[in-house]
């Protein structure tokens, strides 16, 4: 018996159709990229279902392939539960073989406990409603299921010490959050490093950063700010992002030292409850 192919996501169906139409038009990814005014790498991400084109890029694709608005109309149906700037990132996380993330002030979403995530969502909204917060917490929890597999993605997490010290949700929530990270590090599910305050200035002091690598496609880098994010696939930008990550990593504590610091910080928060 043959191995069953997993069900395709709507994005993958979109990408496969784009590839078929491109080949039928006799165009390479490079040629289509020139017509759409984007890189061949981006076209490959579209065709693999890892990213969706912007509405303007979808219209350019339709013009390049003479598809009479087909891809622009289909794009409107591919709604997402994530913010526009993050939707492609969430999709890429499910396909990455390696995720290397740096957090400047908050625990990364993939590692957040329900209590920690809930406290953040409440802080984001001046008049939060419980049902809205509950929905957001569920979405974030579901996103973290990408880590349920024993091997992939390989996960590296580097935290600025500020992440450990800022008490989000109160001492109990914070202690539970840090112990969860430490438990994952001890079990081998993530490689953990902390950039201590004593390092002073470091290469990632201005932003969080996520690097993702894939089995059959070029790596990407993602940075995020308030209500915005930038997913980069330009080889030069990805390379400079990786250099910045490596520089920061060279200043960070070892895995064991970081684990000990996270446990100690959790204990400090626990004592604050008393």
TrEMBL record:
<dbReference type="InterPro" id="IPR001387">
    <property type="entry name" value="Cro/C1-type_HTH"/>
</dbReference>
<dbReference type="GO" id="GO:0003677">
    <property type="term" value="F:DNA binding"/>
</dbReference>
<dbReference type="InterPro" id="IPR043917">
    <property type="entry name" value="DUF5753"/>
</dbReference>
<protein>
    <submittedName>
        <fullName>Helix-turn-helix domain-containing protein</fullName>
    </submittedName>
</protein>
<dbReference type="Pfam" id="PF13560">
    <property type="entry name" value="HTH_31"/>
</dbReference>
<feature type="domain" description="HTH cro/C1-type">
    <location>
        <begin position="18"/>
        <end position="70"/>
    </location>
</feature>
<dbReference type="Pfam" id="PF19054">
    <property type="entry name" value="DUF5753"/>
</dbReference>
<dbReference type="InterPro" id="IPR010982">
    <property type="entry name" value="Lambda_DNA-bd_dom_sf"/>
</dbReference>
């Amino acid at each position: 018996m043959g191995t069953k192919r997993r069900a395709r996501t709507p994005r993958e169906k979109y990408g496969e159709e784009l590839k078929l139409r491109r080949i039928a038009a006799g165009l390479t990814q490079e040629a289509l990229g020139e017509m759409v005014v984007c890189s061949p790498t981006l076209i490959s991400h579209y065709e693999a279902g890892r990213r969706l084109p912007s509405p303007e890029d979808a219209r350019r694709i339709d013009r390049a392939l003479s598809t009479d608005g087909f891809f622009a109309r289909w794009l409107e149906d591919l709604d997402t539960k994530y913010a526009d700037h993050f939707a492609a990132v969430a999709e890429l996380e499910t396909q990455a073989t390696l995720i290397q993330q740096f957090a400047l002030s908050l625990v990364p979403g993939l590692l957040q406990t329900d209590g920690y995530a809930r406290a953040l969502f409440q802080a984001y909204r001046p008049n939060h409603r419980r049902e809205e917060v509950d929905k957001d917490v569920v979405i974030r929890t579901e996103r973290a299921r990408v880590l349920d597999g024993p091997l992939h993605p390989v996960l590296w997490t580097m935290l600025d010490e500020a992440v450990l010290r800022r008490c989000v949700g109160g001492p109990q929530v914070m202690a539970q959050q840090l112990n969860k990270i430490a438990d994952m590090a001890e079990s081998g599910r993530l490689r953990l490093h902390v950039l201590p305050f004593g390092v002073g200035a470091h290469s990632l002091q201005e932003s969080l950063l996520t690097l993702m690598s894939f089995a059959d496609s070029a790596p990407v880098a993602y940075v995020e700010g308030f209500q915005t994010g930038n997913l980069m696939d330009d080889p030069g930008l990805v390379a400079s992002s990786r250099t910045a990550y490596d520089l920061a990593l060279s200043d960070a504590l070892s895995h064991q030292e970081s684990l000990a610091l996270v446990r100690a910080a959790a204990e400090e928060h626990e004592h604050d409850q008393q």
